Each structure stands twice: as C-alpha cells, then as structure tokens.
C-alpha cells in the first residue's frame, strides 16, 4: 500500500507511491541535475549492489555513474550469477547482500524477485525493471515532461495529455500508473490482445478517479485525440523475441507505428521512447532523429538524475528535504 508521507523505504512499483512522493522525487531530480555539486557527497561511504539478470546499457550506466556523482560506490552483479532463486534462494541472496551493501538495485525478469528481495533485505531495494513495472523509467520520463510542460509549477502536469502507442508492457504500466497518480490525461492505444491485464487497467482507473486524472484505453489507433506528447516502445520486449512469428507481429502492429503523420494527426509536439529503438518498426528513423519532436536523449539523461533522487531519498533523506 502507498505510504502516508514522503519518506521512502523501498522504490518497487509506481502504485506503491503517493502523489506527494512522486512530486518530491521529480523536484529533487531536477534540483540535483541543476546543482550536482550540492549532492556530490550525498552517498559518501555508501555502497550499492546492482543485480542485472537482463542486459542493459542505460540502466547500468545511469546507475553506476549516477552513484559515482553522488560520492557512492556501485558493484555490478551480472548475468553470470544466474537467475535469482535458481542458484540460491532469493531470501538468502537478499540477506547476504544486506550484510555488505547499503542498498540493492535489481533489474530482473519477474516482479516476484523484486518482492522477495524487498521482503528479506534489511536495506532499501530499487526496482530497475521487472516484467510488470519500470518505475525508474517512468520517473525519468515525468522529470522530462515536467521540464517541458510544467517548468514553473509541477501541478501543471495535471494539464498534460500523454498517449502511449504500441505494445502494452512494463513501461506502459508504469507510465499510466504515474500519470494517473499525478492527475494527467493518459491514453493507452494497443493492438488487440496486446494491452495490459484487466487488473492493471482497473488499478489505473481507480487511481485516476481519485486524483482527478483521465485515463482511456483503446485498440483503435484512429481514435487518438489531441495530445501533447506521444510515447512508444519496442513491439517485442526483451526476452520475448521468439514468442510470436516476427512477420505476423510486424503486420499486426504496423498501423501503430509512431511517425510524422501520427504526430500531425494528434497535434503532438513531443515524441518519447525509452530505447533501445527498433527503427522503422515502432518509430520511424526520421521522427526518432527529429530534434523538433524527439526528446529521447533528454529522457536517457534524466534516468541518471531521477535515480539519483531515489537513492538520495532512500539513503540520505535529510538531504532530500
């Protein structure tokens, strides 16, 4: 359940955060980005163990270098250690790492591994990606959206109209949960049978109703209304490359490609992508590289600052206030 104040004990899933916590993290990320020198000892003497079951570029580099910028030390534990729970119990893994590290960052296949780590660790756990959520990405994305659409007042995010077009996945789950939390207008557009679970849809609707946000889900790309920003992600999630015949999948998803025509139809001024991009599939090369629309590298940079805000809030909360 969401906590009642801005203090964090873990950073596991968007729906375990409150609106106040999300807003505080966004503001802190922007502050650290603007004045990193004020935080260069925020994690002095702290060590963070980073578990990676899946390959990574942005997550690995942004955490490693972000921790260094905060004066801390990061230890990378890669795929050579195998899947959590196979070589040894998740509970044992968590308890052992808690003996050495001040926090655990984990990029894993299954949310159950994140939950197990948090249950048994005596130090904070950060979800760096699982099958259900990608809260670090969503937080970085809303830092980016705040910089563009709400630079003077974070409450202006309630006026934001954001659409996600493509495959329903962990990124879209976290985005729509965080949008609902902040009261933004969020439209999810996925091909039939490629949307989120009904439980996830119900959860988002409930949060949006409470916050005053608006959420809609459709499988009809022609129903896209006017948007401020359009977001997309790869049509084939990492680890699922062989789940469906590639030619059939590309044919099914082709109408959902994000391109200049779709941007014009929706009158959107910003296109977003968490990367890696499969160019000419979910997004055209021309749009991805179009600096008049694309903020993909601003998003990528903000991964570091957003995650820095999370770690400072967990390990040095006095500096976060």
TrEMBL record:
Q: Where is the Aspartate/ornithine carbamoyltransferase Asp/Orn-binding domain?
A: 159-313
Q: GO annotations under biological process?
A: citrulline biosynthetic process; L-arginine biosynthetic process via ornithine
Give its E.C. classification number.
Answer: 2.1.3.3
Q: Which GO terms describe its molecular function?
A: amino acid binding; ornithine carbamoyltransferase activity
Q: Does the keyword Ribosomal protein apply?
A: no
Q: Which SUPFAM superfamilies does this entry report, sorted A to Z?
A: Aspartate/ornithine carbamoyltransferase
Query: What InterPro entries does its record include?
Result: Asp/Orn_carbamoyltranf_P-bd (IPR006132), Asp/Orn_carbamoylTrfase (IPR006130), Asp/Orn_carbamoylTrfase_sf (IPR036901), Asp_carbamoyltransf_Asp/Orn-bd (IPR006131), Orn/put_carbamltrans (IPR002292)
Any idea which UniProt keywords this protein has? Answer: Transferase
Q: Which residues form the Aspartate/ornithine carbamoyltransferase carbamoyl-P binding domain?
A: 10-147
Name the chemical reaction catalysed here: carbamoyl phosphate + L-ornithine = L-citrulline + phosphate + H(+)
Pfam families to which the protein is assigned, alphabetical: OTCace, OTCace_N
Family to which the UniProt record says this protein belongs: Belongs to the aspartate/ornithine carbamoyltransferase superfamily. OTCase family.
- The name this protein carries in UniProt is Ornithine carbamoyltransferase
